[in-house]
Structure formats: C-alpha cells, structure tokens
Amino acid sequence: MIKITKIWKEHSSDYSYLKAELSFDLGDENRWLESVSSFHSRSFVMWYKVPIEYSCYLCAERSDAFIVACVYFAMVAGLDIHTEIPITSCLKYQLNEQIIPLLCNKKSGFKRIKITGDVADEVNKENKYVGTGISCGVDSF
C-alpha cells in the first residue's frame, strides 16, 4: 500500500513547492520501484513546483494532486493508495468507481486498486480554486 502521510508547502525566492511524503507497507517499495524504472532514488517525497506568484493556489489541505500522480504507478504495481490527508469526495468516487475499473482490463494489464481515506468537499475559502492533473471530465481524455 502507498500511504500519503504528510503534505506541506516550501518556498524559495523564485518558486513554491507543494510536497508530499509517501510511505509504503513493508516490501511494497520494491514493487513501486520496479513499476517506475526511471526512478533512481529511495527518497519518497513527491513534489510540484510553481512560480512564486502562484503559491497561493497550492493546496496542502487536500491530497488530490498526489493521488492523481500516484494512480498510474499504483495500478502497474498493484498497490492500493491510502491518504491521511483528505481527498475530495468527487475525485475519490470517480477514481474508485469509474476511472480505475475502466482502465483495468486484460489488454492494459493494470491491477484494480482502491483509494481509501477521509473525504472533504470544502475548498480553501481564501482562493476558491484548486488545480489538479485530472478533472474526470471529457477534457481529461
């Protein structure tokens, strides 16, 4: 199982980073590494980098962006994803009930995984916007 255990922001003079700490059940890190052949590090901090002027749009209160980034490799390795940081309920439903079942077939070779963790719907009230890599709409395909 892949676990998202912590999400935080960091800033430099020119860029802002949204980072997440990933942990694995005993032995699962090797399955992850085998699924990511170009991954040469044992450091399991995933991050997004944006110009400093966009730092206010980074959301450390939701795990959505990191879940979306992990789904492909999780399906290749057959590892469920659990987040200790809330995931938007709509995204969790769409991934578990629509996207993952659709992608897992004999031709793709992907393994059916489950995403677990608490859900939340309220978006950061200060900005009213959150960007992720997938909207689960027709434009994502």
What can you see in these coordinates?
The protein is an alpha/beta fold. The protein has helices at residues 28-35, 64-77, 89-103, and strands at 2-11, 15-24, 45-51, 81-88, 115-120. The protein has a five-stranded mixed beta sheet with strand order 3-2-1-4-5. A hairpin with a 3-residue loop joins strand 1 and strand 2. Helix 1 (28-35) crosses helix 2 (64-77). The chain is globular, with a radius of gyration of 15 Å. The protein starts with a strand and ends in a 21-residue tail after the last strand. The mean pLDDT is 83.
Distance between the termini: 27 Å
- What is the typical, i.e. mean, pLDDT? 83
- Helix percent reads 25-40%
Strand order of the largest sheet: 3-2-1-4-5
Q: What structural class results from the helix and strand content?
A: alpha/beta
Radius of gyration: 15 Å
Parts with pLDDT < 50 across at least 5 consecutive residues: none
What is the beta-strand fraction?
A: 25-35%
Q: Specify the overall morphology.
A: globular
Largest sheet: 5 strands, mixed
